[in-house]
Structures are given as C-alpha cells and as structure tokens.
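Example record

The entry below shows one chain as it appears in the dataset: sequence first, then structure tokens.
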Amino acid sequence: MMLSAALVNIKQGAGGFKQNMNAASKNVLLRGYFKKKKNNANDKEENKRRNNR
C-alpha cells in the first residue's frame, strides 16, 4: 500500500514539475536561457551526425 501511494506521489510531482518547467520556459526573464539550452542541444546532435558520416 505504501509503495503504490509513493508511486502516485512521484507521478503527481513529476507532472507538476513538467507544468512548472513549461511555464518557466514562457517567462520573459527565462526565455533566453531555455532558447540557448535548446540551441546547444541541437548543435550537439548535429555534430554527432556529422562525425558519424
């Protein structure tokens, strides 16, 4: 019983975290940070593709 309750709490917490991150990414003050982070991830993926050719 305690394990299933813990799993429910974890799922709810993860959902709440996702909502908070989505809201933060739309915040004017944090938008640049998330845009930069996304661009860096895209650059890394592109570099991997180039190196695998």
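Notes for this example: DSSP finds two helices and no strands in the chain. The two ends are 52 Å apart (CA to CA).
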